[in-house]
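Assess this one:

_____
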Amino acid sequence: MPLSATVVGAMLGLSVQLHSNALRKLPLMRHPWEHVLALGLGAVFGNQLVKWEAKVEEDLDKLLQKAKEANELRYIGYRVIDSEARPKIEELRVIEKKLRI
């Protein structure tokens, strides 16, 4: 996955540079160092995009788990009388208050 993101990002950077030169009606390979720079920046962009997507997915899973715990407290937790469950219920109430904010 990281290799494909790197290659796709690099090709995106190169295509941006080529299109930039084409729109200005300049020779496509006018400054070759700009193409190398665009390849590098595109590769970095592709890798950072993959990392960001994984982080967003992880954060979403955490939020969904918190919401699930809050819903369990709301609909199931009040009926639990077990003394061992009381600390967990208090913890879930705190989570529920944080989600309301």
